[in-house]
Design a protein that fits this description.
- With about 170 residues, the protein is an all-alpha fold.
- It is built from four helices and no strands.
- α2 crosses α3 and α3 runs antiparallel to α4.
- It starts with 5 loop residues before the first helix and ends in a 43-residue tail after the last helix.
């Protein structure tokens, strides 16, 4: 003997109803402004757009991040007072700032701030403040520029450079 549960009846009801096609979404109203596009990662920006984004990142870093999450500078946890002169720091802080806006701003879920602390803040700050990280060698009030690692060829998979003519053949 089988029992007829409410779930069974609901399932059979859906089986009897014909499947409805979704109606296409109406076209956007030209009078309404388009939703803002997501911000571009700072390494893709140039000129005025880069400078404006770096300024806003600096304000967030100096007025939100460092007052709340900045910790004492030590040899095992360096920080550079001129962090904006370290491209890696700019890139990591910009990613952290974008995630902060997405995970803690209006419309974010209640769990967003906790996830931001766990998934974003901790790893980024650990990477930046690592003794071998981008601020290695920097001390309070003593910025040390980093040398870019040498690269033998800028594009090893590009077309080969022109070959010089053999000896005795005019160029």
């Amino acid at each position: 003997m089988t029992t007829d549960t409410a779930a069974d009846r609901q399932e059979r009801k859906w089986e009897r109803e014909p499947k409805r096609e979704r109606e296409p979404a109406p076209p956007p109203d030209p009078a309404e402004p388009a939703p803002p596009s997501p911000p571009k990662f700072i390494l893709y920006l140039e000129g005025h757009e880069y400078a404006d984004t770096l300024r806003r990142l600096t304000l967030w870093t100096h007025h939100v991040l460092l007052p709340v999450y900045g910790r004492e500078v030590t040899s095992t946890a360096p920080w550079c007072g001129r962090w904006w002169e370290h491209p890696e720091a700019i890139a990591q802080l910009h990613g952290l700032w974008l995630a902060w806006g997405d995970m803690t701003g209006p419309g974010s879920e209640a769990i967003g701030p906790a996830n931001w602390h766990r998934d974003c803040l901790g790893p980024v700050m650990a990477s930046l403040r690592d003794p071998q990280g981008p601020f290695a060698g920097c001390k309070p009030h003593a910025h040390r520029p980093k040398e870019t690692p040498p690269v033998d060829m800028m594009d090893p998979f590009g077309p080969p450079p022109p070959q010089p003519p053999p000896p005795g053949v005019p160029a």
